[in-house]
Please model this.
Amino acid sequence: MVEQQEKDSGIRPLRADARRNSEAILNAAAEVFDTLGVEAPVKVIADKAGVGVGTLYRHFPQRPDLIKAIIQKEVDACADAAMVLVANEEPVDALAKWMQRLVDLVATKRGLGPALHSGNAAYQSLPDYVFGRLTPVLSGLLDAAAASGSIRSDVDAKELLIACMRVATPASEGDVAQARRMVALMIDGLRMPRNG
Amino acid sequence: MVEQQEKDSGIRPLRADARRNSEAILNAAAEVFDTLGVEAPVKVIADKAGVGVGTLYRHFPQRPDLIKAIIQKEVDACADAAMVLVANEEPVDALAKWMQRLVDLVATKRGLGPALHSGNAAYQSLPDYVFGRLTPVLSGLLDAAAASGSIRSDVDAKELLIACMRVATPASEGDVAQARRMVALMIDGLRMPRNG
DNA sequence: CGATTATATGGAATCAGATTCCGTTTAGCA
DNA sequence: TGCTAAACGGAATCTGATTCCATATAATCG
Model:
């Protein structure tokens, strides 16, 4: 009975129909989240995927599991984008551009922001993953820019990350351009020597 | 101690028991929201107030009505605080201090932030009220500081207001001090001459 | 290929919380 | 004190989330 660790990550071979359904659910959920937001009824997703709700729950026992599966790729891509920027831009420009890239991520994946800041304990794995992946990236960008003397060095990466993601979270009020401007404002703040 | 005005358009005087219950519900809700957040079950509030759910709904047909009633006083106080600051501080300091005052408001009234940014159409009256009240205040502070040459003048008041309130919204991650620092960062951004 | 078995499925049943409805109670008033 | 409109409480209803399990099926084996 040593079969605990076969939750995912491919150690266990999924049956073909299960794999197919899992993918259908993922596609349906991505579409529904973009349309109705993360709070969309589970039934809607199941119907669109052509499966029963029981099947949906078998694959994704918690709603955050579903969200996480959908955005993981996007988050990874965003993290990777920093590499390219670092290689081709001045440190402070790399920082500024990456943070705008972050705005795009949050603005595009409409579910991400709300799910991230919901405060619901059940959603914990999501912020854990996202911040765990992105904080080191931002931290590196900040250090590089600080080392080049373009910005001050007294700002905590995770703190800034959270603030930016909150500002970028779409809702009734506000749009992407607005979020961009406000994030740019924070970057300008970084350029300012520490004030008393 | 302004007398309770009629809550909706009617000019009808409330019966004594109704007024009493309305107040009890308000007190209970304020307490429950602070403890469990705005999503707390209606039943909990009704029980704590010692009334039936029907009575609660009679007084506050929509949850936002309840939230609005609770925070209205706080929002007004925050708006009024600007007057004092303007009279006693340099324009840019008045601006900075008022924005920190705003952080306190959002951080303290735990329900405010989430309700404000929920995007739920039923909650529309809340942002309408809050932004309607606070945007002119911030706009005035920004204009004064810009006129004194301390900050740039290309930032939209409502945009900045929304951004600050989002940053200040409490959740699992983050605390008041963190929100303060991030808002201070934005203010530093305002001090920076417009960059290309 | 057919039998066997562990997996996976669908949707009915159950549960939780929101909202409505209506028979009963009560404040206000003559 | 009696009358009436206002207000009350909570049962009934509705909506959507989550669980459960009898049925179906992919994979494996002889």
In short: Residues 15-18, 41-43, 53-54, 57, 61, 63 of chain B lie near DNA strand C (CB under 10 Å from a C1'). The CA atoms of residues 167 and 182 of chain B lie 7 Å apart. The radius of gyration of chain B is 19 Å.
